[in-house]
Amino acid sequence: EPEVTQTPSHQVTQMGQEVILRCVPISNHLYFYWYRQILGQKVEFLVSFYNNEISEKSEIFDDQFSVERPDGSNFTLKIRSTKLEDSAMYFCASREKRAGGGTDTQYFGPGTRLTVL
Amino acid sequence: DAKTTQPTSMDCAEGRAANLPCNHSTISGNEYVYWYRQIHSQGPQYIIHGLKNNETNEMASLIITEDRKSSTLILPHATLRDTAVYYCIVRVAWNTDKLIFGTGTRLQVFP
User: Fold this and answer.
1) Is the Cβ of B80 closer than 8 Å to some Cβ of chain A?
2) CB A101 to CB B49 under 8 A?
3) Can you give the pLDDT at residue A1?
4) Is residue A85 within 8 Å of A91, Cβ to Cβ?
């Protein structure tokens, strides 16, 4: 069964460093998302991406964050200058575009645990 | 998005049916009910979704009341591996497609 994959599973970085989290969405999916979950808290939406541009972003997704689909398979989240409070699990998700509208399911990857020291 | 209310936690004996309720009394006519679960710190796993009719798949059944103000997720024969946090989410099909997670119900399946 196709699944969303994410690398690395765990990333440790120093405060102020740049990190890039990588995701490979399900191959025929066209909508891509990043969510995060700080330890013990809710899963929070960060950004959605379609047709090579951001569709929607939350207030968390400030100028320190960026997303990119550098090729036909990868979807990345970059944090330019990490802060301690960026420590969290980051989940990528994707969904297909169903012809004729209607709703489609988002499928999540296993996550990347980011630890900022 | 409509808000949902779920019990904080529930227990279920292994092999028995787990019935997880969700209240979404402010749901609009075009909002779908989605259920996801999260096992430990893994990525949320899709379970099932529905609009008006009851739905069943290989994982679970979803019962939506006629007025659509509440729903129940049923795991017919719970196993220890079903221990997880279960999230009930309502979402408009064509508006925003972000998922808004609440705190969910922590289901503990015991032997």
Assistant:
1) no
2) no
3) 76
4) no
Cβ partners under 8 Å of residue B84, min gap 6: B37, B38, B39, B40, B45, B106, B107
B95 is written with which tokens?
A: 């508006």
Q: Which residues of A touch B103 (CB under 8 A)?
A: 42
Closest CB to A107: pick one of B41, B42, B46: B46
Nearest Cα residue in chain A from B102: A42
How many helices (H) and strands (E) are present in chain B, helices listed first? 0, 9
Asked if A114 has any chain B CB less than 8 Å from its own CB, the reply is: no
User: Which carries the bigger pLDDT value, residue A99 or residue A5?
Assistant: A5
Give the per-residue pLDDT at B95: 61
Q: Could you tell me the two tokens for A103? A: 């709703």
Prior bond to B76 cis, omega within 30? no
Burial class (CB in 10 A: 0-12, 13-18, 19+), A27: exposed
